[in-house]
UniProtKB/TrEMBL annotation:
Superkingdom of this protein's organism: Eukaryota
Name of the gene encoding the protein in the UniProt record: ASCC1
Protein name per its UniProtKB record: Activating signal cointegrator 1 complex subunit 1
Alphabetical list of InterPro entries matching this protein: AKAP7-like_phosphoesterase, ASCC1, Cyclic_Pdiesterase, KH-I_ASCC1, KH_dom, KH_dom_type_1, KH_dom_type_1_sf
A GO term, aspect molecular function: RNA binding
All residue ranges annotated as the K Homology domain in the record: 56-124
Origin species: Crocodylus porosus (Saltwater crocodile)
Gene Ontology cellular component list: DNA repair complex; nucleus; transcription regulator complex
Coiled coil: none
Length: 353
């Protein structure tokens, strides 16, 4: 199937076809060499890149965040050397930790274009393997909601603490209760600024949907993310519009569409799954863990992940009401951060009412 239906890689406005090659497993991807060979990408149309003609040949420049430089260089510089040899170009990369432009020069225009195409695919491949740094969120940590959440936690521990795996370490920090709309990998200030600009451009869409008014929502009921309630990994509260309209879902999906089209977000699902995590087995090992399950439900960064028996919790608290609140802003939240209120630090924010 890899041959008949090869993977398509979208980079900006261009789409590449990745031809199948035999891959070897390695223990540490970041330390091993990775290289996109001559047959991995289709020839690039000559007008797809901005290539300047110089006194010594041709030149083009591309921007990439410094954390990705090492993947172009490769182990002991082998990737860069092969790229230069096979495309007959010279590739200049800024020093590690320094932001700047990658400059490709060569005698032949086709060689410069080929080198840039391969570097683009290389960067995109490894960007997808980076842990997310930011996420779009609605804050759900209003005082009334926090109080009801703590009540929920107290009652669960009182009535279900003898059930397998149930303990206080599973519960979310009440100050960080939130609705996740999507995750992003932003590797430098330029990318963070781009994300902030995209967020602000969403306001016009929001105004059309909700007329500049806040979204009245309620957190009522709980649900789990896997098939067996006796083997739960994540338990979440359901969040919906008080009038049962689909406005919250429409806004979430519209946000995702804007960020996916910009290349800053990977589309994993047709629709955003609206949920607010209240219990997560990741918290047992790391209280600051984020909702990686939002992207890869059922996959865990840990080799072994101890589930908990949530059958009694579902039976007793299936319709638990956490309260009502007004949503009026979307945050570009920083992972592993805390602001003065106890919520995540914000890189950008869109207030729509």
């Amino acid at each position: 199937m890899e041959v008949l239906r090869p993977t398509l890689i979208r980079i900006g406005e261009r789409i590449y076809r990745k031809n199948f090659i035999q891959e070897q497993s390695c223990q540490n991807e970041e330390e091993d060499d990775f290289y996109t060979g001559p047959g991995d990408c289709a020839d690039e149309p000559c007008d797809a890149f901005t290539v300047e003609e110089t006194e010594r040949g041709f030149q083009c420049k591309l921007e990439a965040p410094s954390p990705l430089y090492k993947y172009i260089i490769g182990k002991k510089g082998e990737t860069k050397k092969r790229l230069e040899m096979e495309t007959r170009t010279s590739i200049s990369i800024p020093k590690p930790g320094m932001e700047g432009e990658i400059v490709i020069t060569g005698q032949q225009r086709s060689g410069v274009i080929s080198a840039q195409t391969r570097i683009d695919v290389l960067l995109e491949s490894f960007r997808k393997k980076q842990p997310f740094t930011h996420f779009l969120s609605f804050a759900l940590n209003q005082p009334e909601i926090q109080q009801k959440f703590l009540q929920f936690k107290e009652e669960v521990l009182e009535k279900c603490s003898k059930d397998r795996g149930v303990s206080s370490s599973l519960f979310q920090n009440p100050a960080k209760l939130h609705l996740t709309l999507g995750t992003l990998v932003l590797l430098n200030e330029r990318e963070i600024q781009k994300a902030c600009e995209i967020l602000q451009r969403c306001k016009e869409d929001f105004d059309k949907i909700i007329g500049g008014k806040p979204l009245p929502v309620e957190m009522t009921g709980i649900e789990y993310m896997n098939d067996d309630p006796a083997m739960m990994d994540v338990l979440y509260a359901k969040v919906c519009m008080k009038d049962r309209s689909d406005k919250l879902q429409v806004i979430a999906d519209r946000l995702m569409e804007h960020f996916v089209s910009s290349g800053l977000m990977i589309k994993e699902w047709d629709r955003v799954k609206l949920h607010a995590t209240v219990m997560n087995t990741l918290f047992r090992k790391d209280p600051n863990a984020e909702e990686r399950n939002y992207i890869n439900i059922g996959k865990s960064p840990f080799k072994e992940r101890e589930s908990f028996d949530g059958r009694k919790i579902m039976k007793l608290f299936e319709n638990f009401c956490f309260g009502e609140l007004q949503l009026n802003s979307v945050h570009l939240s920083e992972r592993f951060s805390t602001d003065s209120s106890g919520y995540y630090a914000t890189s950008g924010q869109l207030t729509f009412s």
